[in-house]
Specification:
This protein has 9 helices and 10 strands. By secondary structure, the chain is of the alpha/beta class. The chain has a single domain (about 5-320), classed as 3-Layer(aba) Sandwich (Leucine Aminopeptidase, subunit E, domain 1), CATH 3.40.220. A hairpin with a 2-residue loop joins strand 5 (about 135) and strand 6. The longest helix is centred in the C-terminal third of the chain and has 22 residues, at about 210-230.
Length: about 325
C-alpha cells in the first residue's frame, strides 16, 4: 500500500504554525484547559491519507478475536507496546475534523477536543491546499494520524451536581454553562498518545441496504484497517500486531444499522489482517446488539470458504436484508 500523502509534524511547531480557531466559546475553553501555556509535548506526529483498496484474492476469513466492552473509549496505553500498536477509529465526517471549532459534540468532535492537535492537523493540511476529506471521488480515503497526544478527558454523562443534568453529548454541549464544561474536563498530565483512524461512514440511507452501499462501507473499513496494519508493521525493527478499537461506527447522526456496521467492520478487520478488534458499545444493550451481529459474522464465515474476491461476501450480507436505521438527532 502507498498513501496519497505522508507528513511528519513536530508537535510544538504544528501548534505554533497552524493554530486552531474556535467558533464556539466552550471549545475555546477546552483548548485552553488542555494547553494553558500553549505548549504541547515534543513529539512527532505522522499523517497519511489512503486510496481505496480491495482485498486481494483469494479472500480467506481467518479467525480473529473480538472483545466486547459496555463502555466508550478510555485510550488506556497498550499492555504490551513492544508487541502491539493500538488504533482508535474516529467516526469521521467526510470533511476531516471539520466540526472541531463548532458547538457540535458527537464522537468525532469529542475525540478532537481530547486530542487538540488533531485540529492543527486539519489546519496544516488546509494551509498546504491538500485534500482534507476522509472520502474522495472514488469512495474511501481514510486519514490516519499516529502519535497524537491526548490532553483531556471529558465526561459527557448526565450529572446534575456538576451542572450538566442532561449531559454534554451532541447538541447540548454548545450552550452548556462554561462552569459545567470546566468541571467535566480533566487535564491528562503527563499525556498519553493515541493513533487515530478517521474513516467516514455513509449517511442518509433508507430501506434495505443495497449491494453497492454494502460494498462501499466494507471497502472503506477494509482500506482503513489495512492502512493501520501497514503502518503498524513498517518503520521498526520488529513489526507490531494491530489492535483496533471501534464501535457503532456511523450509527448516530448518519443513521447506520448497528448490526450492519459491526458485521462489515468485523469482516474488514479479518480481510485486512487485524490481530484483534475491541468493540466499545456503550452499555449492556449495546453488548446484546453487537453479540448478535458477531453471531451473524461467524455464520457467514462458516458458510463461505476461500473466495476469489470479496464479491460473494457482499452478496451474502445483502441477502440478510438489513435496513438503515434512524438519525439519532445529535
Amino acid at each position: 500500500m502507498q498513501p496519497q500523502y505522508r507528513f511528519q509534524f513536530d508537535a510544538p511547531s504544528l501548534l505554533r504554525d497552524h493554530p486552531p480557531y474556535f467558533r464556539n466559546a466552550n471549545k475555546d475553553l477546552l483548548f485552553h484547559l488542555a494547553y494553558p501555556d500553549g505548549q504541547p509535548t515534543p513529539a512527532m506526529i505522522q499523517v497519511t491519507r489512503w486510496p481505496k483498496t480491495a482485498p486481494t484474492g483469494p479472500v480467506v476469513l481467518s479467525p480473529m478475536p473480538v472483545e466486547l466492552r459496555p463502555d466508550f473509549y478510555d485510550y488506556q496505553p497498550a499492555a504490551d507496546p513492544q508487541a502491539m500498536l493500538e488504533w482508535h477509529v474516529n467516526f469521521a465526517d467526510p470533511n476531516l475534523f471539520y466540526g472541531y471549532s463548532s458547538g457540535l459534540f458527537a464522537q468525532d468532535e469529542m475525540q478532537v477536543a481530547e486530542h487538540p492537535l488533531l485540529a492543527s492537523v486539519r489546519q496544516a493540511l488546509l494551509d498546504r491546499r491538500l485534500e482534507v476529506r476522509a472520502n474522495g471521488h472514488n469512495g474511501a480515503a481514510p486519514v490516519l494520524v499516529r502519535n497524537v497526544e491526548r490532553r483531556l478527558s471529558i465526561a459527557t454523562h448526565p450529572d446534575p451536581a456538576a451542572g450538566r443534568p442532561h449531559g454534554l453529548y451532541g447538541n447540548r454541549f454548545a450552550t452548556a454553562p462554561a462552569d459545567a464544561v470546566r468541571k467535566a474536563a480533566r487535564r491528562i498530565d503527563p499525556p498519553t498518545f493515541s493513533n487515530i483512524i478517521a474513516m467516514a461512514a455513509p449517511a442518509g440511507g433508507f430501506g434495505a441496504y443495497m449491494p453497492q452501499q454494502i460494498d462501499g462501507i466494507f471497502l472503506t473499513a477494509h482500506t482503513a484497517f489495512a492502512a493501520a496494519v501497514h503502518e503498524s508493521t513498517q518503520g521498526g525493527a520488529n513489526p507490531l500486531q494491530t489492535l483496533i478499537h471501534t464501535g457503532f461506527w456511523g450509527c448516530g447522526a448518519f443513521g447506520g444499522n448497528r448490526h450492519m456496521m459491526i458485521i462489515l467492520q468485523a469482516m474488514a478487520a479479518r480481510t485486512a489482517g487485524v490481530c484483534r478488534l475491541v468493540l466499545h458499545v456503550g452499555d449492556n444493550h449495546g453488548i446484546e446488539s453487537a453479540r448478535h451481529a458477531l453471531e451473524i459474522v461467524e455464520n457467514l464465515v462458516q458458510t463461505n470458504g476461500p473466495m476469489p474476491d470479496h464479491t460473494p461476501l457482499i452478496d451474502a450480507i445483502a441477502r440478510l436484508g438489513l435496513r438503515w436505521g434512524n438519525n439519532d438527532g445529535h
